[in-house]
Amino acid sequence: MKAVFKHRKEIDGLRSIAVLCVILYHANFSFFSGGYIGVDVFFVISGYLISSIIYKEILNNEFRFLSFYERRIRRIFPMIFTLLFITIPIAFVLYSPQELRNFFQSVLSTVTYSSNIYFWKKTGYFSQNLDSLPLIHTWSLAVEEQYYIIFPILFVLTSKIGKCFVDISFALLAITSIILCFWFFQDDEKNFFFMPMRAWELLAGAALSLQKKEYFDKSIKSGRIYDLFSILGLGLILFSASFFDNKTVYPGPLTLIPIIGSILLIYSMSSNTLVGKILSNSFIVHLGLLSYSAYLIHQPLFVFYRYINESEIKIFEYIILIALTFFLSHFSWKFIESPFRKKSTVSTKTVFSLAVVCSVSVLTIAIIGHYYKGFPQRFSNEQQSISNSIEVSPFRDSCHTEGVNFLPPNAACTFFKDSITWAVFGDSHGVELSYALAKKLDKLNQGVIQLTSSGCQPAYSFESNTPGCTKWIRESMKYLQDNNTITNVVLVFRHSFYLFGDQLQVYPNIPNGAPVFISNSTPIIAREIYWKSLEQMIQVLRKSGKKVYLVDPIPELGTFLSKYIFNNNILQATRIDSLGTNIHYYQQRNQFILSKLSKINWDSSLIRIRPLDFLQDGNSLKVIKNQKALYFDDNHLSLNGADLLSDLFFKNRLVK
Q1: In the chain, what are the helix, strand and coil shares in percent, each to the nearest 5?
Q2: Predicted pLDDT at 167
Q3: Are residues 212 and 135 both part of a single domain?
């Protein structure tokens, strides 16, 4: 007799909670600052349901690998390929050559279910680049499919020995995964994206599915204890979604909160419990049925809308986009997902044939798009020339550090002479400056050491929430104090980003977010602590005999550089915008730090470097000069820009 797994409507309801958490997080709803935990809920649900089906089939001697992977293809492939076939032409119209090439790379990784590895290498899930990556959310599908390549094989092999061995094996795998997640890669992006560090979440659901039969007999699930369990479970999930944020170390020990919440809900929910009744509501269940389509559709929809809309997206716009997501999801579920799941509608042969044809087609398109470098021929020769002028430091990847496993100062990169008399010290805004300044100093037989750490504040006298930052700053300061050959130190930080938040989300408005680099402090106090720490760094360096060059804030752009070169208005596709923001915006954006700098007593041992000296053009600020791009994104100077900035050090004979 064929094994049948009873459909549980309340789990569909839980899916709706999970997908709404993710969507509201991507829509920047502040009360869902931890909405990314919805993916963890999906992992537990997936582990529970898939393992339940596999186990029942094994018990009935009905499990077949071909049938299992056919079900996965029917479930995953139709919508993912529909999404790719729609997003590819949109990206072709909107994106610059490099953006389109990167997009094709992400398409390639999506089809091969390696997008978690691709996005780990390209960016971080909590980085600002999230808004420009229409396929970044496919990382979770890659994790699942990598898991389901291995898991069924292990399940079948261990079940041949006995259920006890299955339990022990899964427990050991889960413990190993937790150890990797909680300790070995605690502050590493691999922790977020890699399957071995996420497997324990799927195994948690699998473990629940292997409990004794009575645990799944929902007729006995009545009474106050199950109501309490389900309320507690829902509370843990909503708590995580509301109080976690981008600074939460995740995944990690705190991930246990939504995972335990999901387990409690799946275990205790039934038509007899309060939460079960709510989540079994027909409307909520329907949203849950749409969850896969909604999950796939919302991110590219949001990204493309943000791309063509250069002003801050309002709440009502996000509400419309969310409504549109579910509207489209309803039709994709009805006309794409549902028909493909039925053998009576689409035969096994047709499913596998379409899977092969679609895979080959999309892979071919992606490879061609990558090979031809995003088809720059779509744009004018002038635009291509400016785009080709964008360069970053050739040592950005190897010499720029970050996190707790940072490159120690005594192992930092030096350019280009043995006699190192200069240090560029700060965050990522110092990377290109290090290289550009070193090229000029090379003629004077002077060398430069690059001391730059990504997203690190001048956290000398306070403990930063940015992992590894304070330790790196203090070690670098000690290194500079003890090194008598280094007599010049350039300090460069993206101050206003740390003090008030990112500009892209709200431009042309001025960001006024609370600092997140320090805990248990009001915004006003945190900003003063920041400044006092920077002041102390300057004092300590000067006391140790260093000449200090303090660089004013690098002007930020209102959008990514590519939009200035490659206009996304199809009717004006060849227009180039050479000017970025204006002086008024720059002054308002950096008012706090500029007011502090204006009160400093500058002298021959403390010199102020003003990027405005080469960027200002009347009331505007340059993005492109002499047909060369001065930036490579929305806030970092390119090598061209850094070269002009380094010229300021030689102005008025500051460098001898």
Answers
A1: 65, 5, 30
A2: 87
A3: yes
